[in-house]
Write a structure and sequence with these properties.
Distance between the termini of chain A: 65 Å
Largest interface: C-D, 47 and 47 residues
Number of strands of chain A: 0
Structural class of chain A: mainly alpha
Order of helices and strands of chain A: HHHHHHHHH
Oligomer: homotetramer
Strand content of chain A: under 5%
DNA sequence: AATGAATGAGCCTTCATTCAT
DNA sequence: GATGAATGAAGGCTCATTCAT
């Protein structure tokens, strides 16, 4: 009981610090955030932070890894939640925009502070990234094989799917976006489908050229 | 003569410093770059730099503004170099990827260090940006009116055009891209056209379905 | 029984901590040793140490006093173990070099970390030192009175007896010595005797100048 | 002229800082001295110190090396200033006690803070030390060959010459000495000569026994 | 008695910037 | 205009010590 309590307290303190750091990093960036900023925001003492994390960079790394893991897991999850390629892509876009909207701090941090990461973290990330990209590529390849998607190199496919919603997200995060997120999902999903669909007939507007419904 | 010489020297010195700063910012980011780094790289003295620029931030701002101006000018230029919407979009993509490839330091700096800018620069940029986005929006609107492009909100249109090539560029800059730039241009341009074309018939594959143009 | 056991445990724990601290101080010096170093080496918790010692300095003081007491007791002991002055001096030198060899950590700590001691400990030490020096001086004076030693001021006598073996010991402890300890004892003892003998006839080589064995 | 002036200023500032640091190190030891202590004592700013020295350790090293070099140079100088062995030894002892008396801070620092030195400095010192010990050993060997000194291993010889005056110096520096330095020189020199003289006849008292010289 | 999480003063160092020459 | 020595605020981090459990 005592132990559990202690652990719970420690874990909670850890979370407090992580959340505080995230908020700071999102607002000011890694470099302009000081340990004092974090300390104050977390209501923790200097020593307390260093008791739980070995350095400011360690904090940033823990945060980055946690965030990217959640983001990528959601991505893959969304992708595999649908069997139909078109719907899968739409699900990914919807999920990501939702995630970004619901996790603005995370998004701000993950998508603009990568440059501040140390080589050590890059290493850890490389593994996660490779797995993520591998899974995405595998899914993509299987869809291409099944004739559900145009054959495209993985880097291009990735740019076509993620580029638009990320650019839109950047506008949202910086207050420059005007289109509401739910509308954006539809528009971006449709555009992504046009870009990736195997042949024109699969495109929305083509249906009226002869066939049914 | 002496004066001229001096002036030329001053201007040259200014350029040396700017180039050195750019290289540093691109490599290390704004915060991790020290004035000493710049000083050494530019073979300039501390006083020399402060004689020409009022602060590190001023240097970064001058650089950012110069870069973004060049980038945006090229964008608009490419856009207006073609009357045909499809070709205009392709020209923009081609130009941007070329520019990024030929100006890696600029690209690295412009596309990943915005967070480090001060409010003062943001202000200066806002103006430039507004003009840029305004010109782009105007062009886009005129094309929509002319039935050459699908009607889309400007933020979405922007995301659809720039998102993919920027994402691809990020991959290039970080060494993760595999598709060569010249191939990427074609693929990205086609995808962009699919996403923005007014109706399916305008799409590449649809022509073979019998009808029009 | 339980209590006894506990007490034994406490005493043992105390010793563990003292030994660990000694090893650390000998290796790193007082200042560069952290409580964490000691804690780890002693397999003790922070609280445990502070339960038995009031501070890092307290630990260092306890250690210093214990060590110096042992060293000085041995000194006096050796001195008084012989009635003959020459043999007494030899016994002191032999004992000290032996002690230093068998207690390298103690020696390293005692002979190079005095500077780190607080005023409070200095006070405690002054008493012990006074007694020690007093005893040595008394012995020395009695030998002088008996014509067994040259009359010399106590500080000089001390320097002549202890200086050489301490300097030699320093070389041993730092790995710079080449003469083995047992040989050194003989050489240093003879030299000390030469320096302190009442008149030349008492010196080794003088015997052959006329008289007998 | 301007340059000279600047250099003079810089050099003077350097000296100020070194002297201040020396005083602090001598008084408090390396670890307990803070850069603030030094800064204040030298009337210099933080940056000024770091402009001239790369770290606190660098300062300590520069000081140590300078001091030891001066001390050792004086040693060798004194040694070689006399052709007669006995007088040479006396000269060394006289010089060292004088030096220590005139350079109390140096002495305190050199003879009690060696433990605080980093490996990097140890390296630099090793060279200097080797040369010093080498020169001393060479001199000693030549004297032994000439029958002016007893044959003794270098470490023992060193202990016999330096040990006593260093121990006496320690007493002086800590206020425990009672014999005035000029008297001590004579007593220690005589004792050293007794310890190192080749045969008893060379000793002071033996002459009156009839034979010799 | 024991544990180890928490505390916070204080340290060394960095670095943008100023200014005398 | 140029130089680089000097400045000092501020930052990340360490570590002896306290205290709740």
């Amino acid at each position: 009981m005592t132990l559990k309590h202690t652990h719970a307290g420690t874990a909670a303190r850890r979370q407090d610090i992580l959340r505080a750091a995230l908020a700071c990093f999102a607002e000011l960036g890694f470099s302009r955030t000081t340990m004092t900023d974090i300390r104050r925001r977390a209501n923790a003492s200097t020593g307390s932070i260093y008791h739980l994390f070995t350095s400011k960079e360690d904090l940033a790394a823990a945060l980055y890894c946690e965030g990217i893991a959640d983001y990528q897991a959601g991505w893959i999850n969304a992708l595999e939640s649908r069997t139909n390629a078109r719907e899968a892509i739409r699900a990914v876009i919807a999920h990501c925009l939702e995630w970004i909207t619901n996790n603005e701090d995370w998004a701000r941090y993950l998508f603009s502070q990568r440059a501040a990461l140390s080589a050590a973290v890059e290493e850890r990330l490389r593994a996660a990234n490779e797995q993520f990209l591998g899974q995405a590529a595998k899914w993509f390849a299987s869809q291409v094989d099944a004739g559900q998607l145009r054959p495209l190199p993985p880097d291009i496919a990735n740019a076509l799917i993620a580029g638009p919603y990320l650019e839109y997200a950047r506008q949202v995060l910086s207050g420059r976006a005007e289109t509401p997120v739910d509308e954006a999902v539809g528009l971006l999903a449709e555009a992504a489908w046009r870009a990736l669909a195997p042949h024109p007939e699969a495109l929305p507007g083509c249906r009226k050229h002869g066939e049914n419904k």
